[in-house]
């Protein structure tokens, strides 16, 4: 029986105030119900745990005051059943008991009870226990709401990610389509190209275009950074070196007879440097190797703008990696670039690669570098065409210890057979 009354002022809280009182004693229920109602709560009563469960199925209470010892299902069994009903919405469970031994209290906690009030019930103690339960419920409801907001936000982010991922997959297809032909055979040579981004899209680009009669233009580009902005830059540069629209190709000059001549490569790079600085509002710059190949004689004139040196593998296996280096395109105005030349003999081949190959790290962080590239080229000296790049990527994967690389990798393999050894 309650021994003392308390003021009839309910505690101001935004936690719902539904209280279920469960006791087989009608008198005890009425006494408890009277006090709890005066404290501002909405009260439900049940004379047994079985009846209480039926009420909980329709209206899940926020707080439960349940006697421990009841005929049929006791308070501990009811608490366990109540917890199974209220998994989504937590209810605070207070056991009313004359038991005070530690072992019995521990048994109640294991059954899911949150607190205990010993009989006879003291009104001040009960009010304090209920107030503590309200605070816990309030914090739990706030946490649930915040978790819901986080879940909704994560769901929205997942939808945005899925949409972005789908767009990036389409962007990857479009960027890969810039390299329309991965292998092409000429009367005197074979040409193979490779483009593999470290992400969905990247800043590398390789390509070729026909120039004046018997000449072929080759370019290998590496735009700074990664991702969408770098990929957009490569798309624009592809237009400046277009094979489909020679009038828009800055490397070609239209002659009076309607044919096109390849401008000096160093002048072409200077033109691109001016275009980037004057017409493109971008912080990106790029490295470039541009080559004019005479398909008949094997003579190559090229210019280098911060790009890795071309690797020339002679028929006898000797490898040469030389070039003037130069500044990347788009860093500063008024700079000049240097042309250099290479003479290919039948059986020689020329490899143009981005720095994603030579700067690929192994698990210890040591890069492949030029010496490692030479070793790979010697090992693959008998492999040509697209199979060469497949084997190169396989060996690079072994070196890196993983199938993905930290940078884009791209390349051009030009294999010169000569007029007398057409293949």
Descriptive tags:
single chain; 423 residues; alpha+beta; 6-stranded antiparallel β-sheet; 5-stranded parallel β-sheet; 10 helices; 37% helix; rod-shaped; disordered N terminus
Task: Give the SSE map.
Layout: E1 18-22, H1 26-38, E2 42-46, H2 49-58, E3 63-67, H3 75-85, E4 92-97, H4 102-111, E5 115-118, H5 123-177, E6 183-185, E7 189-196, E8 204-210, E9 215-223, H6 228-240, E10 252-254, E11 260-262, H7 265-279, E12 286-294, E13 299-305, E14 311-313, E15 319-321, E16 339-343, E17 349-353, H8 355-358, H9 369-379, H10 386-400, E18 409-416
Parallel strand pairs: 1-2, 1-3, 3-4, 4-5
Antiparallel strand pairs: 6-7, 7-18, 8-9, 9-12, 10-11, 12-13, 13-16, 14-15, 14-17, 17-18
Helix pairs in contact: 2-3
């Amino acid at each position: 029986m309650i021994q003392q009354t308390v003021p009839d002022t309910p505690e101001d809280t935004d936690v719902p105030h539904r209280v279920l009182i469960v006791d087989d004693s009608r008198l005890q229920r009425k006494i408890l119900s009277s006090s709890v109602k005066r404290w501002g709560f909405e009260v439900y009563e049940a004379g047994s745990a079985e009846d209480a469960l039926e009420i909980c199925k329709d209206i899940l209470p926020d707080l439960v005051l349940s006697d421990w010892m009841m005929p049929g299902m006791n308070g501990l069994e009811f608490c366990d059943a109540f917890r199974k009903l209220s998994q989504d919405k937590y209810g605070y469970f207070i056991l009313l008991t004359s038991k005070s031994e530690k072992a019995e209290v521990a048994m109640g906690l294991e059954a899911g009870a949150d607190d205990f009030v010993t009989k006879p019930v003291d009104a001040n103690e009960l009010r304090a226990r209920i107030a503590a339960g309200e605070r816990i419920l309030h914090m739990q409801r706030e946490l649930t709401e915040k978790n819901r907001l986080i879940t909704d936000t994560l769901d929205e982010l997942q939808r945005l990610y899925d949409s972005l991922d789908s767009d990036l997959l389409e962007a990857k297809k479009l960027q890969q389509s810039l390299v329309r032909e991965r292998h092409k055979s000429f009367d005197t040579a074979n040409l193979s190209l490779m483009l593999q981004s470290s992400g969905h899209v990247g800043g590398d680009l390789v390509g070729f275009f026909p120039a004046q009669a018997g000449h072929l233009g080759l370019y290998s580009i590496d735009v700074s950074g990664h991702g969408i902005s770098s990929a957009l830059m490569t798309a624009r540069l592809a237009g400046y070196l277009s094979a489909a629209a020679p009038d828009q190709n800055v490397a070609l000059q239209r002659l009076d007879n309607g044919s096109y001549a390849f401008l000096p490569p160093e002048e072409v790079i200077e033109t691109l440097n001016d275009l980037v600085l004057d017409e493109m509002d971008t912080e990106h710059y790029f490295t470039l190797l541009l080559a004019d190949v005479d398909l008949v004689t094997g003579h190559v004139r090229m210019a280098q703008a911060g790009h890795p040196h071309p690797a020339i593998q002679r028929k006898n296996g000797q490898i040469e990696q030389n070039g003037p280096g130069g500044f990347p395109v788009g860093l500063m105005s008024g700079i000049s670039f240097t042309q250099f030349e290479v003479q290919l003999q039948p059986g020689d081949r020329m490899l143009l690669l981005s720095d994603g190959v030579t700067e690929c790290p192994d698990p210890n962080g040591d890069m492949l570098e030029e010496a490692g590239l030479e070793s790979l080229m010697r090992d693959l000296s008998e492999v040509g065409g697209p199979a060469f790049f497949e084997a190169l990527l396989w060996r690079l994967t072994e070196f890196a210890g993983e199938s993905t690389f930290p940078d884009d990798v791209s390349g051009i393999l030009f294999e010169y057979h000569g007029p007398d050894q057409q293949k």
